[in-house]
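Sanity check

After download, print the first record. It should look like this:
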Amino acid sequence: MRGNRGRIATVLVVTAFALAAAVVACMIYRPDRALRTATGLAAHDLCSETFVSQLDPGQAFAESLAPRPGFRWIAWAVHHHVDPIRREARASLLGALPSRAVFRDDVGCVLVHGDEPIATTKRSGAVPVAPLLPPIAGPVIVEATDLRLKAALDAAFLESQSPPYANTKAVVIVHNGRVIAERYAQGYGINTPILGFSMTKSVMNALVGILVRERKLAVDAPASVTAWGGSADLRRNITVEQLMRMTSGLGLDETGSGFDPSSQMFYDEPDMAGYAQRAALVAVPGTRWSYSGASTHLLARIVRDRVGGTADAVQRFAFRELFDVLGMRSVTLEMDATGTPIGAHYMLASARDWARFGSLYLDDGVVSGRRILPEGWVQLSTSPSLGAPYGAGWWTNHGRSPAAAARIKAGLPADAFFAVGNLGQRIAVIPSERLVIVRMARSHLPHGGTKGFEALVAETIIRLRSPR
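Expected structure tokens:
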């Protein structure tokens, strides 16, 4: 009898400890917040793809969201609805943890978390600046006339019979300032705005560069975040360049798991930069590289504040100084509730406009004789950070990282650099070849189908180098 009582007592003690550990784990890891990121992701992406891109929401969910790692395990439980009258998208997990994103003219979608005020702006009253970049193509699709380029496009759009799928949606190849070949999937065209995801980080690089050229920012100066103002706060030493290079030392790593701070910032925080500013240091600034969308969003807040501190001011600045100058007429730069551009993730533009953006970097930021980015900006942006294949807003072939070495071995020149976004969004900029190649997709192949994109770039280079 005593033995039985002892075993029962042991079971009770173990169970109590297990429950206590589970409670502590939930308090630390907040699975509710991780699941909230899933419903927020679904609501925001469906809103953007439906109302900005004018794409079918059911197909967007099936192709873009449902197959994603992590999300695929709960996709069956994610209820989603797009309301064309209210112009909003909602998502929940079996009715719980609801998220709602609303569409607004000119500035796209924003997640609404409660009754917080939402910063608004209208760009319709602004007069577009005359573009400096000459037109890269006419009003019709440029078909590949070269058989080798046609074969490269065929390979880029080739689909397997079973998942994971490439889901290539658009390819644009620009050589010497003109589109020489392009192709689009059904439902997409030359004017379809497509989510760039983390390619938006490269856009933030350009906006920071413009402010540096205007002497409103200095990359080696402290980021001047008010929340880090205390004399004993070591975060006050973090520089603008360290935020650009993701070497700030802040605990803002991005894994896309839903448990990471960057993901929770994107989908469960109305003031994203305010959340990121509260992060603690986990390393001395400048000594640790870790991919971090939240670091880029801190830059977006700095940009917003330097140009006037309002949603209207930052939108007008971005269009006047960058998008209009390049003739990018399909851009939607989405913002959080505070009017800060979601500079790490949420810009939409046509594939041609993404190519126009890449063209800015072919000549160190000079377009038609006018300097848009400061001298040496491309070198700074593409020099590797602490041995990583990442520069300051661009992925790079410079340096000795294994990733760069593998790309060079695959036939991509050493001076090539890349804007990279989730689901296979890519811009390759190769100054030595006068070449910009854009591929947009909803790819769930390993690393977003990087190998296929590299093959497209390498094959294009071979064709352009060969005698006609």
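If your output differs, re-run the checksum step. Summary of this record's structure: The first strand starts at residue 78 and ends at 83.
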